[in-house]
Amino acid sequence: MINRKANAVWKGTGKEGTGVISTQSTVLENTQYSFNTRFADGKGTNPEELIAAAHAGCFAMKLSFELNAAGFTADELNATATVSLDPSLGKVTKSHIDLKATIPGISADQFAEVAEKAKKECPISQLLNAEISMNAELLG
């Protein structure tokens, strides 16, 4: 079992308060977040942005493993995840992955198959209780 930790400290009300997020690795250390960083364009991070980063990173790594298992090595996998929060429902409703990939020797069908498998089987995809969609583009 692998355990990873992050810590959040919040002070004040939901709308006027502020918080900081820190991670075990210290990549984030007292990183500011607030109502404005979550629901507007304030300076700092927010939970949905962090989920998007986790989903993009997890998917790209899972796809790399799937490609290796199929006999391919990517020159580059560029994955961008967009997490959608519906404030009226108070929940994340979707995570969409945009992928641009350069993989020597792979056919379009093989690419589509391994990308779809990685989308479904990446641990963060499995964790999210939301629609997971993807637009995967194989470059040159």
Describe this structure in words.
With 140 residues, the chain is an alpha+beta fold. It contains four helices and six strands. The chain has helices at 35-39, 47-69, 108-121, 123-127; strands at residues 6-11, 18-23, 31-34, 76-86, 91-102, 131-138. A hairpin with a 6-residue loop joins strand 1 (6-11) and strand 2.
Q: Write down the CATH class of the largest domain.
A: Alpha Beta
Coarse shape = elongated
The topology string of helices and strands comes to EEEHHEEHHE
Overall pLDDT score: 96
- Read across the widest sheet, the strand sequence of neighbours is 1-2-3
Strand segment count: 6
Question: Low-confidence parts lasting 5 or more residues at pLDDT below 50?
Answer: none
Topology:
Elements lengths: L5 E6 L6 E6 L7 E4 H5 L7 H23 L6 E11 L4 E12 L5 H14 L1 H5 L3 E8 L2
Parallel strand pairs: 5-6
Antiparallel strand pairs: 1-2, 2-3, 4-5
In short:
The chain has helices spanning 35-39, 47-69, 108-121, 123-127, and strands at residues 6-11, 18-23, 31-34, 76-86, 91-102, 131-138. By secondary structure, the protein is of the alpha+beta class. The protein folds into 2 domains: 6-39, no CATH class; 47-138, 2-Layer Sandwich (GMP Synthetase, Chain A, domain 3), CATH 3.30.300.
What keyword list fits this structure?
alpha+beta; GMP Synthetase, Chain A, domain 3; single chain; 2 domains; 140 residues
